[in-house]
Each structure stands twice: as C-alpha cells, then as structure tokens.
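Appendix B, example 12.
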Amino acid sequence: MALAPRSHGVRITEVAAGELSLTVVATSVWGIVVQAPDADEEAFPLDAPVLVSDFTAAIEAAGVAGTMERSLRAISSNGRSIGVVVRVGEGVGDTPAEIAADRDAKVIAGLQQLLVAEQIVGVRPRVIACPGLDTLAVATALGVVAPQLNGFAYAAAIGETPAELKTYRDGFAVRELMLIDRDFKAIDGAGAEVTSFASAHAVGLRTWIDSEVGYHKSLSNVAVPGVTGLISPRAWDLQNEQTEMGLVNGADVTGLIRRTGYRFWGNRTCAADPRFAFEVAVRTNQILRDTIADGVFPYIDQPLTNQLATDIIESINSMFRREKLAGRIIGAEAFLAPGNTADQLAAGKLLIGYRYTPCAPLESLGIKSEITDDYYADTFALAA
C-alpha cells in the first residue's frame, strides 16, 4: 500500500459561484473608410485597419488630398477617442462610370476590413461611416456591415428635394443606419473654409455622447463643435413643421440646423420595424445585448443547476437595475423563459428571456395655451 497523506483538519477551497457584475460594453469606438492618395503609406497602408488614438499624429500622416484628413478633423473636434481607419485606393477606369464603380468596390472592400479590425488592432468599431464616399452602393454596404458589428452607421442622404430624399430613404430597411441630409462647413489645416462631412461629425459626436452622456441620448439637438456653417441650409422653424426641414424629418432623414450653434435635427433610422424607428432604441438594444452576452461568458460550461440559472438571471437583473437607476432605460427584467424542458436541460441548453423599454426621445412637445380673465380677479384682490 502506497504511502499517502491523510486529511486531518480543515481545507478551504475557493469556488466561483453567485451572481456576476455585468459591465456595460464599450460603444464609443469609431471606424471609417477613407481615401488619402498622399497619406504616409507606412502609417496608413492600403486596405488594412489602423488603430488611431493620437489625432495629431494621424492628421499629420493623412496628407491633404482625399477624405481622410477632413474626416479625422471632424471626429477629433469632439475630443479624444479611439477608432479605426481603413484607407483604400482611388477608383480607376477609362470612363467616369468605371472609375466610380471601381471606387465603390474598393470602399466596400474596406468596410469588410472593419469586420476583422478586432482581431488585428484589438478594438471593434461600433460607430461607422465612409465620409464623402457614401454613394448608394456604399450606403447599402454600410447597412450590411453595421449589423454584423452590432454597431450603427451614418451615411449621406442623396437628393435635393424632400421628395427625392424620401424616395432614397424608402430604398432602405436597416435599423442600424441613419441618413443625413447635406454637410457642414469647417476650417481646414490651411485656414480655408471647406466642406466638412456630416457623417464624420456624426461619428465623432455619437462616440462623445456615448462616453459623456450615454447610449440613451440621440444625436439630435446637441451642439456640434468645430463647424462654421451649413452647405445649402434648409428652412426650419421650431414651432412649425410646415418647412423644408419638417419634410426632411418626415422622410425619416436627419437634417442640419443652426440654433445657438450648429446641430443635427432628427432621430430616425432606416428601420422597417417601428419599434426601432429611433436611433436610441437601436442603440439600447445593441448595448444590452452585447453587455449580457459578454457578461455571462464566465457561466458558460459551468454545471447546469437551478442555482446557476438563478445566478445568471440575477446578474442580468442587477445590471438592468443599475441602468434604470442611471436613467438609461425605462425598465427591464430577465426571467426563465418557457421551453426549458427536461430533455433540453439534460442536453446542456438553458433558455433565458428578457424584456426592456428604451428611453424614447422627446421628439414632439405639445403645449396647450388658454386665454382667461381669471387673473384680473387676483390682481384687483391684491390691490384692494
């Protein structure tokens, strides 16, 4: 018989049990596809995701031609943030149509690089755009890539009249996409006033709002820093929707206005499902979904017991309570969903459901006024 120690005393073993603290996922990482023929090729090689954390160095390496330098300046006007840039080549061909088609193909291929950015540079872009390059073909591709990243995309709305904008908008049915009418003006590195892409400013502002306010606040009616004017402004009136801007918003397109600064004006996505018509509804769905998925990762492959199911549900509900207390959701609840039969549980499958209500933006405020002579009685009563 081999000699072995005999347990005679107390032995304490640590076990991983109980609920976990689910931390809201990072949503303020941006990603853009750009062209820059005179950029530093070592800093920004073609067709490869590049991590940008130092705007000064990135803008210096971007050159002045193409769309990269203006896009980076627009994003940086909102302060420090981290993002991914994919630089693509210019279009080539014998005719303008061939050049445009080749350019679109290269931009769309660049969008595919955003899908692998996390594996290459360590971050996943959540807010994406192709500023100045967002043709119909590119906007369609943005609507495909954004859901795969569980992110949100901004693109130009193509059309001069509100009717043309509506026709263009009606061609999309993607809740992760917002269309923006017209562009801003801004000062470039040489001190000249130039067109500054609204989609780039939207990317920068969205990431700033996510970091400083929260995913529950829409892009609309927040002062946009770093801009000096509007390209072809449209008529707008805060108290009357019977304007050009009212029609633009009626087409589910976001516009640009000037009111104590320059602002985006509009909350709507390209969703076909009315439950996701608001930008914040889409963003809330994305953040909750990713936070839950990432947060319950440690539970995977643990013994499937009643206590494990309870711990998972309570972990999710604890996060919901924090988000509700912070005012980022109206309410939410996780629960054991129907369908957890004995054979499903024995096969290692557990089904948990959750319900939530996002914060809708106050898009339309009605105030009723009434004229009365009642206050004369108060006035003369005081005089007496």
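The longest strand covers residues 329-336. The mean pLDDT is 93.
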